[in-house]
Amino acid sequence: MKIVHGWLQQLVDGELPEANALAELLTNVGLEVEEIERPGEGLRGMIVGEVLSVERHPDADKLSVCQVSDGSGTQTVVCGAPNVRAGMRVAFATPGVTLPGGLEIGARKVRGVPSAGMLCSAKELGLGDDHSGIMDLAADAKIGGSLAAALGMDDVVYTLGITPNRPDALSHLGVARDVAAVLGVPLLSPSSVVPEAGQGAAELTRIEIEAPEGCRRYAARIIEGLKMGPSPAWMQARLQLCGVRPISNVVDVTNYVLMELGHPLHAFDLDHLHEERIRVRWAGEGERFTTLDGVERVLDPADLLIGDADRGVALAGVMGGELSEVRDSTTRVLLESAHFEATVIRRTARRHGLHTEASHRFERGADPLMVPVAADRAAALFAELAGGEVAPGLVDTQARPYELQRVTLRHGRVEQVLGTPVSLERQHEILGRLGFEFAETKEDRTELLAPSFRTEMSREIDLIEEIARIEGYGIIPSLLPPQDRPMAAIEAHDPTSAVLRRLREAALAADASEVVNYSFLAPELVAALDGARQPIRITNPLSSEQSVMRTMVSQSLLTNLLLNRRFLAERVRLFELGRAYLPASAPGESTREPERFAVLFWGPRSERGWSVEEAASDFYDLKGVLEAAARLLAVARLEVVAAAEAHPWLHPRTAASVLLGGEAIGWMGELHPRIAGELDLPRGVMLLEVDVKPLAAAAHLLASAPSLPRFPPLLRDLAVVVDEALPAASLLALLRAPLPAAEELGVRIEDVRLFDVYAGEQVGEGKRSLAFSLKFLAPDRTLKDEEADALQAALLERLQAEAGALLRG
Hints:
The chain starts with a strand and ends with a strand. Strand 7 (about 105-110) and strand 8 form a beta hairpin. Helix 7 crosses helix 8 and helix 13 packs across helix 14 (about 495-510). It is of the alpha+beta class. The chain contains 22 helices and 38 strands.
């Protein structure tokens, strides 16, 4: 959005700060200034000249020799423009001036005649596309004065980055409201006094709203006796500064009011409306309509159409049509001022690939109470600038009246949120200047009505943000919140955030980087990993590449890997804490959105270096992240078991389920080579994904530690031979399970670890040797070797009985 300093000044009853200070003020209230332009600098040195006489060049039929006054003397200038004439005021570039295109003007001879300067066209000055002749300035332009001032270009233009929640700031009036509130001066509204005459507007047209869901309100003014022509120079200048091309006085007025008040308008040639009536209706299936850009469009029944008695004449809130556009011959106009529903306009604009100044505002939520104000403002300008006669009355049809939103503000809440006191009087002053109405004030709270141009104001925190914006974010102290409880107690109160933090620590410790992805993906990618489940489709996707919701967080990590591979990354380690979106598994069931922890490893285990042995990341690197997370969360009974059939998107040799208390909470393994090939991914992509909720339920967040042992443990190693297919996890479970013999002796098995795996001739075909280290500890005495040997024998007996294990000789 472009805002003109001089235009803004007319709407504020007080002196505005200079450009840089005003830019800082606007940015501080949330209207970020992205750029400051001074268009007049490109016209530096250019002046207004008057052509005193014009004579034919003696040696060139198409050239003229002009005597031009520069305000202090007369200069001879050779000119080739066909429209040059005596008495006209012109844009005069004197010797030494450099035009915006880089051309340096000097004194020279043209076909033997001295020429001191140049008379310029709009195109040569970068002010338009017209190069058919030199600029014809207003008759009252000061001779010898600055051309920039004469054109209204000696101004400052601010480009603002307006966020989608601030449609009110898409106008000079909306920006002026914030500026006036900060400066503490009154806001000046533009004049809307309409001189009316002739037959009443209600007798000249009829309005019917047949689609109330798409159009809340539709109003019209009738203007007759119009004289089409160019708009005045000041209006053209302001529109050009805002990036809008001047067209004619009628069209320019509607654009001017749009930039001033932020409300879109449209002018129809009344003589080209059948039966001189307006019908707001939904488009017919396959109905064809040609917009002002000359493109014939096939409409959808969800498109809102402005029609006359039997045809469409405008795509509501987006673009007008060819049939009723304003022409040079137009003398009677129906001026539309309406309020259309944001979602309807947004979908229509996207469906047809049309983004206009009007749709930009309607999509974000136009002000429903601005409808008559904008109509009156434009009608007044039509009467002033186009000689129009405004028919008495506004034909105003309301399908659904608008009610102001009621919001409650507790007086003490402002200080609680901002951390600094703001007096009640100051709170009321700020909100009043921003357009809020006071419905009721009680001892501890105030009931307010949000203005119609701030439809997003629905909560107390919205009001507090408004107070902070205008009072200045600098008043908020930079203090840490008081901490009267230890971190452990805080985490116990909010276990989910503590679990997420510890999962994050486990992944970061493994040199993984956190990513945050959109939850929208391409259907092909989702199907590659989860083809058995139909993903949730997005009704109005941004693109086909983002048309379904992910069913696994790992699917998003694969898109990250694809992008990193395009940039020749040799090693990628990523993790994400986010939601998956699972469709209902049966009719009547609701969709689910489980929080997931997903990790992706690919490439070397370590960064390349002369002292580092190169080895690819494997299953056990990923398992290490899971085990580290289990230790940080103090989660017991977490197991990883082979489950190739349950996870067909994983390589069968590594596919595993993650179990907690015997229940599956996730999976891990290498991406199946077939799927990697389909997605143009390398081999060796390791993936882990687990549900956060069961981990949070089983976590022990309050740290506890046993007392240090007073007596030394006894260490033993136990090597057994088992079937090759038997997982080591089952033997670990047997070794860690309570042992009656240990309980009788008052001894605990402190630690059990697998430290060696061997398969070969020494153990026989189809067998393998697993070696475990055991640590026995008695809390009240030093164990004897005989006691440790008895416990080791009891464990071996259990392994032999339940797993068929044999002691390795």
